[in-house]
Amino acid sequence: MTGLPCPLCGGTRAAKALMHGDVATALRLNALALPAVGMIALIGIILVSEAIRGRPWMDWTPFLRRIGRFAPWVVLFLLIWWIPQLLGALRGSKSELLDTRNPVARYLQQHLGQSHL
């Protein structure tokens, strides 16, 4: 909506770079892709093994409740993470994450871009 990158912006491209073995590009685009790809792979392995066994490994409800307590911290972390993502896009080092066709993004890039930061 604004043309600005979200905290997870670049995650798909980072995951793709990671799958091709380009860790440096993956880290530059979005370092959160590394743990996300690992977590998705682990969840996939668990789900496949549960399907093969025909029963779950454990009761997931208490585990999910415990994780739910960390949700506010995860949101705070993502907001803090968003700041360098946004600055990288505005400064030009991650310009592929910025859509300057949008007036908000174009204005911020012109006023907060490389020459002003």
Automatic annotation (TrEMBL):
Organism: Terrimicrobium sacchariphilum
Keyword line: Membrane, Transmembrane, Transmembrane helix
Spans traversing the lipid bilayer: 29-49, 70-90
Protein name as catalogued: DUF2752 domain-containing protein
Domain of life from the UniProt record: Bacteria
UniProt entry tagged with the keyword Membrane: yes
